[in-house]
Specification:
With 302 residues, this protein is α/β, with parallel strands linked by helices. Helix content is 42%, strand content 13%. It has 8 helices and 8 strands. Helix 2 links the parallel strand 2 (39-44) and strand 3 (67-71).
């Protein structure tokens, strides 16, 4: 049975939602904007898409009160740091951070301007950086009455992911499985949500990783056309595809529950679900955390 989101009052919540210009993020932005947030900040790397998103929210809800489009590009670590510094200086409070942006690349290796594999950076390292930079702000903003929430949109692809510390940036080449590298980064999302949940368990912050369902989005826009066509045929035959709006509901439902959720859990279609068993390996979690921090230090980001 599909989950549905009850009417919420977010008038005390400052929210950041990444990946809002396309797919489920667009519907998540519309839904959240309709719940009267104190401020809803939507980072966008493409200014035109950001403006189109604002118009979409206005046309859907009748207004876009307290909705703001800010510039940020997850494929540029300095852009992420600039966004965080601006947010801390100009807003200074944050209650909900939803990392929804993501990218899937098949059968090719694309490097960012930071010389990192694009899926590793956009899906894992940049959200890790943004969380690190904004964590103190979240801790100072939340309370027992107004708890904080940090969520990462993952994928069931985490189930066949692995953490190979010698191939994080595909240094050893790509995998034969065309979505293996993507699955690895989605496993990283689950691991980070669990480890972060452990680290902030006494700070009135709950963490989540979530699979929204299979939706036709812009996540594979860098793929060759034939790859996207074959993927869409595959999910159509298996009837796996759901609507963007339902994907948005599946993602938001666990984040804004009627009852308190246990931190660090993984959700599939809005329901708690078991992730890849690697996500429970504390040694791998700590090493991934440490390695991620070291890469960011090497790039002078933290």
């Amino acid at each position: 049975m599909s989950v549905r989101l009850d009417r919420l009052d977010l008038s005390k919540h400052v929210i950041i939602l990444t990946g809002a210009t396309d797919g489920i993020g667009k519907d998540m932005a519309r839904i959240l904007a309709g719940f009267n947030p104190k401020r809803l900040v939507l980072p966008a790397r493409n200014k035109e898409k950001g403006n189109n998103l604002l118009e979409y929210i206005k046309s859907s809800n009748g207004h876009a009160n307290n909705v703001e489009i800010w510039e940020m590009d997850l494929a540029d670590l300095q852009s992420v740091k600039n966004f965080a510094n601006k947010f801390i200086n100009e807003v200074g409070e944050l209650h909900v951070l939803i990392h929804n942006a993501g990218i899937g690349v098949q059968n090719q290796i694309i490097k960012t301007k930071d010389n990192l594999e694009i899926q590793f950076q956009v899906n894992h390292l940049a959200p890790f950086l943004l969380t690190s930079l904004l964590l103190d702000t979240i801790k100072k903003s939340v309370s027992t009455e107004l708890p904080g929430k940090i969520a990462l949109t993952s994928s069931e692809a985490n189930q066949f992911g692995e953490i190979d510390f010698d191939n994080l940036n595909l240094e050893k080449g790509n995998y034969w499985n065309p979505i293996k590298a993507y699955g690895n980064t989605k496993l990283m999302n689950v691991i980070v949500a669990k480890e972060l949940g452990r680290l902030v368990q006494d700070d009135n912050i709950t963490t989540y990783s979530l699979h929204p369902g299979v939706i036709q989005t812009n996540i594979g826009h860098l793929n060759y056309t034939i790859s996207n066509v074959l993927f869409n045929i595959f999910v159509s035959i298996l009837r796996l595809k759901i609507s963007s709006e339902q994907g948005a509901m599946n993602t938001l439902y666990p984040i804004f529950p009627l009852e308190i959720k246990e931190t660090g859990k993984y959700y599939n279609l809005g329901i708690e679900h078991e992730p890849n068993k690697i996500a429970y390996d504390q040694e791998i979690a700590k090493k991934l955390w440490d390695v991620s921090e070291q890469i960011l230090k090497d790039h002078n980001m933290i």
